[in-house]
Amino acid sequence: MATPLSDTPLSPLKTIAVVGLGTMGTGIAEVLVRAGRDVIGIDISEAVAAQALAALEASTARAVRRERLSEQERADALARFRTFTDLTAAADADLVIEVTPESYDIKQQVFRALDNIVRPDTILATGTNALSVTRLAADSARPERVLGLHFFNPAPAMKLVEVVSSVLTAPTAVTAVTNLALDLGKEPVAVGDRPGFVADGLLFGYLNQAASMYEAKYASREDIDAAMKLGCGLPMGPLALLDLIGVDTARTVLEAMYAESRDRLHAPAPILKQLSEAGLTGRKSGRGFYSYEAPGSPTVVRDALTPLSGGPEVPGRTVRSVGVAGSGTMASGIAEVFAKAGYEVVLAARTEEKAQAAKARIGKSLARSVDKGRMTAEAAASTLDLIVPAGSYDAFADVDLALEAVAEDLEVKQQLFGVFDKVCKPGAILATTTSSLPVVACARATSRPQDVIGMHFFNPAPAMKLVEVVRTVLTADDVHATVRELCGKIRKHPVDCGDRAGFIVNALLFPYLNNAIKMVQEHYATLDDIDAAMKLGGGYPMGPFELLDVVGLDVSLAIEKVLHREFRDPGLAPAPLLEHLVAAGCLGRKTGRGFREYARR
Question: Which SUPFAM superfamilies does the entry link to (predicted)?
């Protein structure tokens, strides 16, 4: 009788079988052989197995050219890789990693066959990112040795590995594969069994919402992608990423997530089904949300949806001087941006002292730019001279654009727009920097709603390139054309949005952050593991909890409430944990404690 796996000391995982030699399987095999493991590559197709060997030869040759491997190390690595077309080749493996297509039928056939081939102590790992590890384990003769080992594509480059335990998995098996991941130079994250695990669980909900946003014709594919890259620092926009992953793959993952969660945010957007069934699966087919030079090519080519690159069709208005209302960080940052572009700026606040303090803050920012060699002292001085502080909004009488950056409170903004209406000359454009409030409500506080538009800058305004240009149903065409042209002159990238809560960035970002909070609230994963997963697996510059603490938990909660109120989706209801922390005064870095604690300055 075999000794139970949980009682057996595990030998080092030296011989590893990889079942399925597609892109992911080949990448995992490369990681293993370069780390000194003997790899048995198995695929039912001789042609695919041959392609895997050729790909490994090519990638290791590149590594030699880049001096990351010696010729001898390359030869040794290639000698450790053998390919077969029959599962019986896995008989002597210490670990089997299956990376076959995302189908229960296929994976269950593989696991049942392996039960009769491998040793009793051999660990069986599935590379699934969408299917239930528990369900696969339950069908195995020894469910305690089955777990998930989820690498990210491309496996040689991506550091994250999610180690997925079911309720049946033996702790010794988890320890063994976790140690293996560390030996491979990866960063393993321990997670429980639910579709998408951590990284994909958060990522695919966000991608699905982006697809829905595009399908609703709320914004163009180019604007959605540009907004998330420039507004959040992401390496790719969501629609381009869907094309890279494969629209059909994304749909499969989302179907599995929705079957488990019944959360409408995971219900695949109809456009994913339409594109999949039409064979428009992304880069691999040559067309998805975008069109590509050829199947498999990363080069996007123009198609019928590509925007024209000419100037505005509607002539704009002349803007020579700008009024910025407010004295906080955003107001001073926007004033700095316009002054750097050569515009005369009136910086008005409720008192002369507040306006002077805001100008002084700009002076310090310009001085830092001089210290860093980004501008000369003369240029900084002439920029600062263009900014005139004022203690009354009457100073906006002659400006061509009046832009408010005051508190995110609708009543306060409406009162200010009433003042703009009385003070500003006819034809002046009136703009709000709101990130979550209805622009049309500000417009209705004036007698000239056609002149009102949203210009949502991102903090810090001098550094962030994105401006969401929000037109209401009442905004005049020439006002819209003027603001888009103006964004180019101040070296910002404009994206067009309709007047609804969250616009593009916040409407996609905050549900993702809220879902991360729910993961912690449900004790599914730790703060540190979730942050690591999104940085290493998703390419995010900050993990969700790092970002929440920077933004402020009170600000985040307010935006979540606005989104929930606007879209009435139960999945957008703010996580109770977020509400509890805000009620306790734990607002993030600014209070010294949020999801984490910070040293007091």
Answer: 6-phosphogluconate dehydrogenase C-terminal domain-like (SSF48179), NAD(P)-binding Rossmann-fold domains (SSF51735)
Query: 150, 456, 480, 564: which one is catalytic?
Result: 456
What is the number of structural domains in the chain? 4
Q: What string of H, E and C letters represents the secondary structure of 495-540?
A: EEEECCCCCCHHHHHHHHHHHHHHHHHCCCCCHHHHHHHHHHHHCC
For 401-446, how does the pLDDT look when each residue is reduced to its tens digit (9 = 90+)?
A: 999 999 999 999 999 999 999 999 999 999 999 998 999 999 999 9
3-state secondary structure 347-402: EECCCHHHHHHHHHHHHHHHHHHHHCCCCCHHHHHHHHHCEEEECCHHHHCCCCEE
CA dihedral angle for residue 91, residue 96, residue 100, residue 103, rounded to 10 degrees: 100
- Exactly one of 208, 261, 327, 435 is catalytic; name it: 435
Domain with 335 in it: 321-499
Give the pair of three-digit tokens for residue 354. 């507040």
Q: Which of 391, 437, 395 is nearest to 412 (CA)?
A: 437
Kindly report the CATH number assigned to the domain that includes residue 186. Answer: 3.40.50.720
Establish if 252 belongs to a structural domain. yes
Query: What's the pTM?
Result: 0.89
For residue 198, how many C-alpha atoms fall within 13 Å in the half-sphere facing its CB?
Answer: 38
pLDDT higher than 50, residue 6: no
Closest CA to 52 of 86, 80, 26, 82: 26
CA dihedral 81, 83, 86, 87 (to 10 degrees): 20
Could you tell me if 564 and 435 lie in one domain?
A: no
Query: Looking at the structure, do residues 19 and 94 belong to the same domain, yes or no?
Result: yes
Q: Which of 276, 327, 369, 506 does the annotation list as catalytic?
A: 506
Q: Answer yes or no: 293 catalytic.
A: no
Task: Check whether residue 494 and residue 527 sit in a common domain.
Answer: no
Residue with tokens 């056939």: 109
Question: pLDDT for 345-360, tens place per residue?
Answer: 999 999 999 999 999 9
Is 456 annotated as catalytic?
yes
Q: Are 453 and 550 members of one domain?
A: no
Write down which residue in 448, 472, 499 finishes a domain.
499
Residue 443 belongs to some domain of the structure: yes
Bridge partners, 497 (sequence order): 470
Q: Strand, coil or helix: what is 248?
A: helix
List C-alpha distances in Å: 138 to 225, 377, 526, 557. Answer: 41, 70, 27, 41
Phi, psi of 51 (to 5 degrees): -65, -40
506 classed as catalytic: yes
Identify the active-site residue in 102, 468, 546, 560: 468
Q: Pick from 475, 499, 523: which residue ends a domain?
A: 499
- Render pLDDT for 135-147 as a digit per residue (tens, 0 to 9): 999 989 999 999 9
